[in-house]
Each structure stands twice: as C-alpha cells, then as structure tokens.
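Figure 6 in text form: structure in, sequence out.
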C-alpha cells in the first residue's frame, strides 16, 4: 500500500498538468464500468436492505415499549445507535441517487429518513456532502476538513486559534471521545442551517425535525424516569456518533491534503485523496459500502452492491496509469488517521 508521503509526492505540479487531456482517463474508466453493467440500479438489493433496517427499527421501538422504566433500556439504546447508523447510510445512498434515478423520490426518501427518523437536515447535509465530493481533502473547499474543532494540516495548525488551537494539541487522543458528540452536533447544525440558503425548504425540514425530537424526547421522558431517560440519550447519541465517525473517518483522514493551486484531473483528485478499507462482508455491512471510498467518489451514484466489482476494475486501471491506489484494513486505517492527526498537531504542541 502506498503511504501518504508517496501519495503527496505523486501529486502533479501545475506544470506537469499542462497539456494533459482533461477527463480522458476517467472517461475510459467510466466506459469500462458501463460495459460491466455496474451503473445499473439494484432495486431488489435496496428493498431488502431498507426493509431489514425498518424491521430493526420497529424491533427496537417494540423492545423499548415492552421493557418500560428499566435500566435494561440501555441495551436498547446500544441497538438503536447501530440502527440509526444504518439509517444514516441509507440517507447517504438516497442523496446520491443510488436508489432512485429521479430527484423527487430520492429527495422524499431522504427527508423522511434524515429529518424525520434521524433528526438531521437532509438539505443541509446534502449541500455539505456535495461540496466535499467536489473537492475532497481540499483545505479551502472541503467542509469536512475545515478547522472548526480539529486541524487537518500543519498549515491549519499554524493558523489555529481558540478551540481548534486548544484541542489540536491532543486531537489524536481526543478524536474518538469527541465523536460521542457527533450525533448531537449534526442535529444542532441542522437547526442552525434552517436559516441558510443551503436548505431550500426550511419550513418542511424544520417541521420534520421538530416532529422527530417531539417523538424522541416525548417517548423517552414518558416511558422512563428522568435519570434513565438522560442515560438512554447519552448512550444512544454517543454511540451513534462514534458509529458514524468510525465509518467516515477511514475514508480520507490521513490521505493527502490538497492546497490551493494544485491542479488535478477528476480521477486523480478522487483516487489520491481517498482510502479503501478491505475486510469482507462484515466490513461491507458495517460501512454500508463506503469502505469502497475510491469507487464511491469516482461514481457517487453507483449502487452499493456494484462497488466490490468496481474496486477490482479501478485498481487495475490505476496500475495501468501509474496512479497510487490506497487500500488497507479497518484497524490500520484508524491508525493512519490518528497518526495523521497527531502529526499535524505537532506545531501546536511545539508552540506550547
């Protein structure tokens, strides 16, 4: 596997990019995917997958009602954290039109899953995620690497102030503990975004968000005592945040950061900044296909079950082009991400 240093060195300079036929390499790869039939919708797969998640959600609700005011509800909180993680992955696939080819059913499904079931604004998240896909790991353009709390490059570390400067010194150690707040952060950011232009239907989205939390808190504080309800929220939301972060962290963290002025064609921009995670059926289910991050970034609307075959085609094609292709195990991906966070935070520790 090529490490980040090799990948960074492989990034073309502006001069090297001059004269390259833009998009031609990706066009050839796209043709190979189409010839293999990997861009076709998979309605049966999504019917089974979403049906299984719906049954799991219904089972969790039934268990919650049956157990009543009991500390055993914390086991339900753990199970529902996993279910909510799977709902998040379902919303992701709907947003990318992997399930439906048309905008209207994709948007309707996304609003129901994200806003009503998860308490997260579909419009806000989709705007943010679209900008990430367009410029992954770009210091100025990718919202996923903006230095809001953590710093993702040494350049950001040297400019950090306030909370990012304080947290950045020990961000590798704090990364997973901070993920326990990610679920709440998504909901807070969603309500905050209702005033922004990124949310096209603020009244509808706001109504669905309010409905979600009215049902969520209403059920918890009706069935459980205040102490048990707060414990349920802490376990459920904390593990939900860790689950989401554990799925998304291996994909780009520790991969090369793109600075302003670097010119990369679409294929290289997506491949060089993404990392695949291998691990078989269990990892596929845990990460909802996002372990094939390279292929997902190249073909965002490709259905999840096609990504495994697409991986082999992409890896062989990158070898033909001499483009580094990064793939590692799940635990190794976390180590690389944490190593990167510790490395970029070094200027803050030295300054201290």
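Output sequence:
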């Amino acid at each position: 596997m090529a490490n980040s240093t090799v990948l960074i060195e492989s990034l073309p300079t502006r001069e090297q990019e001059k004269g390259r036929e833009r998009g031609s390499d990706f066009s050839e790869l796209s043709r190979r995917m189409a010839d293999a039939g990997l861009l076709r919708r998979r309605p049966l797969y999504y019917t089974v997958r979403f049906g299984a998640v719906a049954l799991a959600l219904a089972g969790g609700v039934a268990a919650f009602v049956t157990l009543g005011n009991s500390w055993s509800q914390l086991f339900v909180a753990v199970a529902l954290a996993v279910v909510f993680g799977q709902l998040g992955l379902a919303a992701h696939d709907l947003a990318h039109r992997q399930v439906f080819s048309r905008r209207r059913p994709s948007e309707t499904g996304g609003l129901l899953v994200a806003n009503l079931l998860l308490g997260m604004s579909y419009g806000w998240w989709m705007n943010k995620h679209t900008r990430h896909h367009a410029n992954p790991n770009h210091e100025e353009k990718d919202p996923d690497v903006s230095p809001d709390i953590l710093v993702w490059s040494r350049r950001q570390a040297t400019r950090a102030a306030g909370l990012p400067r304080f947290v950045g010194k020990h961000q590798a150690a704090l990364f997973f503990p901070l993920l326990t707040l990610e679920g709440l952060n998504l909901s807070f950011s969603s309500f905050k975004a209702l005033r922004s232009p990124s949310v096209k239907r603020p009244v509808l989205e706001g109504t669905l968000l309010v409905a979600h939390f009215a049902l969520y808190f209403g059920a918890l504080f009706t069935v459980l005592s205040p102490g048990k309800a707060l414990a349920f929220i802490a376990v459920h939301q904390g593990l939900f945040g860790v689950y989401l972060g554990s799925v998304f962290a291996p994909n780009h963290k520790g991969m090369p950061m793109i600075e302003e002025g670097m010119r990369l064609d679409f294929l290289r921009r997506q491949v060089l900044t993404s990392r695949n995670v291998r691990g078989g059926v269990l990892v596929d289910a845990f990460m909802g296909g996002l372990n094939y991050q390279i292929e997902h970034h190249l073909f965002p609307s490709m259905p999840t079950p096609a990504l495994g075959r697409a991986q082999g085609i992409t890896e062989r094609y990158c070898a033909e082009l001499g483009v580094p292709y990064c793939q590692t195990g799940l635990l190794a991906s976390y180590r690389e991400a944490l190593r990167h966070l510790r490395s970029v935070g070094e200027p803050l520790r030295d300054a201290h």
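Caption detail: Residues 1-22 have pLDDT under 50 and may be disordered.
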